[in-house]
Amino acid sequence: CQHTFKTQQNVDSPELIVDKHDGHKLTAEEAKELREMAALGHSSAECALAFDIHQRTAWNVINRRTYKDVE
Predict the structure, then answer these.
(1) How far is CA 66 from the centre of its chain?
(2) What confidence tens digit (pLDDT) does each residue in 10-48 have?
(3) How far apart are CA 40 and CA 22, in angstroms?
(4) What is the dihedral of CA 48, 46, 32, 21, to 10 degrees?
(5) pLDDT at 1 (0 to 100)
């Protein structure tokens, strides 16, 4: 099984710093993309692999336990 992995973004990137909140593992845009991926039928484990996060973190985003303010 092949997976597409998201590459690490440059920490010095201004858009990353502005978009991430303290302690958050994803930007608002990444949370939106993760939900879109799940809506297409990908499991939370597959989403987690793509975004290099824990499966439970992906599940929480998908089920709006976290990033509630992101549409």
Answers:
(1) 11
(2) 444 444 433 455 567 899 999 999 999 999 999 999 999
(3) 29
(4) 0
(5) 42
Q: Could you tell me the CA-to-CA distances from 52 to 3, 46 in Å, in that order?
A: 11, 10
**CB atoms closer than 10 angstroms to residue 6:** 13
70 and 32 Cβ atoms separated by less than 8 Å: yes
- Spatial distance between the Cα atoms of 54 and 32, rounded to a whole number of angstroms: 17
Compute the distance between CA of residue 64 and CA of residue 27 in angstroms, rounded to an integer. 14
Residue at token pair 């993309």: 33
Q: Coil, helix or strand for 32? A: helix
Q: Which of 33, 47, 40 is nearest to 4 (CA)?
A: 47
